[in-house]
Amino acid sequence: MGEVVWARAVLMLIRKGVDCGLTTAVTLASVIALVPLFSILLYVTYKGLGTVLTGGLSIFTELPPPPMVEGGGLGPAIVGTLIVVSIGAAISIPIGIMSAIYLSEFSAGEPIAYWIRFFTNVLAGVPSIIAGVFSFGLIVLTTKTFSAVAGGAALSVLMVPVITLATEEALRLVPQDMRQAAYGLGSTSLQTVTKVVLPTALPTIVTGITLAIARAAGETAPLIFTALFSQFYLPFDTEGPGALFNQPIASLSVLIYNFALVPFENQQKMAWAASLVLLGMVLISSIIARTATRRNM
Amino acid sequence: MTAYSMDNSLGGEADVILTSHVKGFYYGPFLALRNIEMKIFKNRITAFIGPSGCGKSTLLRCFNRMNDFVKGARLEGQILFNGRNIFDASVDAVTLRRQIGMVFQKPNPFAKTIYENIAYGPRINGYKGDMDELVEQSLRRAALWDEVKDKLKKPGTSLSGGQQQRLCIARAIAVQPEVVLMDEPCSALDPISTRRIEDLMQELRDLYTIVIVTHNMQQASRVSDMTAFFNVEMREGSRTGELVEYAPTTTIFQSPQKEATQAYVGGRFG
Ligand SMILES: Nc1ncnc2c1ncn2[C@@H]1O[C@H](COP(=O)(O)OP(=O)(O)O)[C@@H](O)[C@H]1O
Ligand SMILES: [Mg+2]
Prior knowledge:
- The complex is a heterodimer.
- By secondary structure, chain A is an all-alpha fold.
- Chain A has a single domain (about 60-295), classed as Orthogonal Bundle (MetI-like fold), CATH 1.10.3720.10.
- Chain A has helices at about 1-55, 60, 75-105, 110-125, 130-145, 150-170, 175-185, 190-220, 220-225, 235-240, 245, 250-260, 265-295.
- Chain A is flat, with a radius of gyration of 25 Å.
- Chain B has a single domain (about 1-265), classed as P-loop containing nucleotide triphosphate hydrolases (Rossmann fold, 3-Layer(aba) Sandwich), CATH 3.40.50.
- Chain B has a six-stranded mixed sheet with strand order 7-8-9-4-10-11, sandwiched between helices.
- By secondary structure, chain B is of the alpha/beta class.
- Chains A and B meet through helix 7 and helix 8 of A and helix 2, helix 3 and helix 6 of B.
């Protein structure tokens, strides 16, 4: 009798030990997964913060410095990144959301849905430089100039599959019951999708879009031969909106790429400052997107 | 409209609002219902009872054409709503569903605030009146107003299950339908919430026609005026739902004419 009790106690101990060990292991794994993020954050802050602080506001407004000249800033690159990413978003968000709506709400049993999903997955795996080549061939060669629009188009090729797949997933998470309730109240399918299903899925969709934007904002390869680079702001004052179509445009990622490879210390410092700013923009936008949509529901 | 006399507990005469002449209802090749001849009376509560799989939900969902969304579903025959066949080409299913509302088995509030849950239906219907007033009226009718009047901006999903189901009832009656179809509306609720919804149905009877599917026979006998008993019959190797007996609730429960009904309400099967 006593032996049985004893054996049970040992078993309990082993079970607890295994339990404890597993818990420690998964906790450790998730900490390890966070190490790269925090080391990047810390290192980029360490290398870039000094330049940003000494430069102050002018970092955000001034033109990039020529070699061996102190001062200067990231103005055109920041504005350029915002413009090119906005163009990419303006193209990809409607396409991505609409194809996701088609896939999730209207394509039941249609063989074409299978192929759309298949090619969207293929597109999601396309190397980013191929997206650049595509836009180069389609837009740069036909307009005979690098431009913000060519850069935005290249980025949209990368963003569409991310947005489509994330949105479709988000729509699928909306319970079928809710669609039934909407139809039961006399909704048309358009009303059901736009007034019930989309708003319900919105927080998840916004997260997906933010991810796509964050990825696009950091891309360099698709911009190198579509948007190229520029030392200056786009001349909207003389050219109007045409400036988006007829000349190269700066961006943070290409500035980092250019300045990181030069032997001039001031430009290298500016590359670190640009990395910090880019990282900050991506982080802040995802935090805003998340909190803004969470408040809703 | 023709008046039919009914010798039920309410006495008096009642108008017919829905008439089923369903010859057959198919899910693809599967015959789910056959020969359903029945009249639903206006401002009465009609209960559908019967073993599960006998087609109660199927018939209920024919009344507001929710089966239109089921691929391969097909109906032979007619259903008349206020004398007009709802499957006529001239009848718009969307408009029909505004007149014949539905409350589902599982409470399914929208991921919107309590207020917006109610306002949704009237809004898509182009309601022009005072929305605050309509929301309050609907919530009062659903006996939910006192519990939620201070948190109309809270999400509908923050309510308890019983409150959510009353919210869904309020949402359904906010579009001012003539008929409210309820498919086992209490099956996911505790006994107290169930009782509240049963009381609520009694109060709504004067304003709406209610058809309720329930597998709870006590519930049917407590709330309904008319009861329809459905059963599954083997026809040509297929399990098909049929209407066995349809009569005032007191008749069904006290002196059923058919043996199957007697066995079912006596608790001997199902
Ligand atoms: N969407 C559907 N597709 C195919 N068969 C269905 C579908 N819905 C119900 N059925 C079948 O139709 C029969 C009746 O179902 P239902 O109307 O849900 O019965 P009840 O509500 O009485 O339990 C059942 O055999 C069921 O399996
Ligand atoms: Mg059912």
